[in-house]
Amino acid sequence: MTPEDVEAEIEAALEDCEATVSRARGKHDDDHLEATVVSPAFEELSLVDQHQLVYDALGEAMTTDIHALELTTRTPE
At the fourth CATH level, which superfamily is domain 3-74? Predict the structure, then answer.
């Protein structure tokens, strides 16, 4: 999956979400990624639960296409 594919998957699964995904610093392949995801769905959720929403959005890709995902989650505020 390309970073753009990952962005699209996350944004399709989480309402009013904005995802920015790129290759992880120092990596030159598409299976080591870093993402910043902003969504009102994260409000009142723990950091672990926020990350789980993103992992769920990516589904099987988290075990087949993505080796590592450095994740930052935020609410719009």
Answer: BolA-like (3.30.300.90)
**Closest C-alpha among 73, 62, 70, 74 to residue 23:** 70
Query: Exposure of 16 by Cβ count < 10 A (0-12 exposed, 13-18 middle, 19+ buried)?
Result: exposed
Q: For the chain, what are the domain ranges?
A: 3-74
pLDDT tens-place string over residues 18-74: 999 998 876 556 678 999 999 999 999 999 999 999 999 999 998 898 888 999 999
Q: CA distances (Å), 20 to each of 15, 32, in order?
A: 15, 14
pLDDT score recorded for residue 30: 64
Query: Quick one: 64 exposed, middle or buried, by C-beta within 10 A (0-12, 13-18, 19+)?
Result: exposed
